[in-house]
Amino acid sequence: MKICHNFSPGPAKLPDEVICRMKDEMFDYQGKGVAIFEISHRSDLFQHIYEKAITLFQEVLKVPSSHKVLFVHGGAAMQFAMLALNFMVKGRRSAYIDSGLWSTKAINAGLERFPNEIDVIASGKDINYTNLPTYNPAEHSHDYAYLHITSNNTIYGTQYKKFPKLGNAPLAIDMSSDICSYPLDFTNIGICYGGAQKNIGVAGMGFAVVREDFLARPPQTPHTILRYQTYHNHQSMFNTPNTIGIYVLGLVLEWIKSKGGLKAMSLESDKKSQLIYQVIDKHAGFYHSKVAKEVRSKVNITFKLTNQPLEDKFLSFANKNELLFLKGHRVAGGIRISLYNALTLSSAKALADFMDIFATQNS
Ligand code: PMP
Predict the structure, then answer these.
(1) pLDDT at 3
(2) What residues does ligand 1 touch, defined as CB less than 6 Å away?
(3) Which of 1, 66, 159, 193 could pair with 152 as two cysteines, CB 3.0-4.6 Å apart?
(4) Is the pTM here over 0.90, yes or no?
């Protein structure tokens, strides 16, 4: 197979070992003569795959018994709507922090159903999301049903190093782009959720880790399929689940465990991102990042070339060197480097070396 360095923002690179396992066993699962996607989700064979994925999720993320792991349809975006429908509490309001496009989408989904009960307590829109917005807790209620944040801004390249707090409000966190890239403390988390396609699997597969008292909140939706309780009561199989997605998730979590778990992922993430940020800082006049240093993301690095017409040349030379999918998101422009778990240190090094040479030759 052709060797390339895949910096795709998502769906993103899977670990090579996982791709090999898929090749080996997907079409003839455990010698049974059937492919994974040909078996019923009610079969013993699939039940085993599901249980393995759930157990590994709990183990790798050290999920406490107070929280339940669910696999949910519709990627992360459907959960923007679901979480408001499920966890809004009558007579209370919920708070959101707007730190980028995905936060805005979560806010808008909440507002569609609760136009008067949502407070955006801080927004980075005016500064083009180059920093994480701050707020003064004293100016806000301490009785919010939840505080929603996006842990990592895939498009703009900012990331929380420490989650914010607001009185007693449990956190509702969209972790689509940095789940499993560092150890997580669930103490103040009511729900963390996201799509699997960046760090832990394939597209169309959503996950949610929900605290029991959150699950017990009376949902404000007539639709059974939009209730987290339904997913919990039916082992995430109220209807046919994403069987392939659950299978791949299990393989990726097994791979993370074999590599030393989330501490190891976090250390690797530090090293990969440092390699790239060092080159950006070394050639600060050539590569230009507006993101505040203290909130720089370790998984999505964004910047522009000061000489903007050179960006096309950068991308095409990168392509020729098998450094793929580096174009920034259409709303942000520039370059975006995605360094999820499966992206190796040697790929990050190859890109850092390329950037160094490119800047030297084109300055
Ligand atoms: N939240 C974040 C932080 C994302 O990066 C994305 C996708 N890039 C989404 C939500 C939306 O995910 P999906 O397309 O799976 O709904």
Answers:
(1) 79
(2) 10, 75-77, 102, 150, 154, 174, 176-177, 195
(3) 159
(4) yes
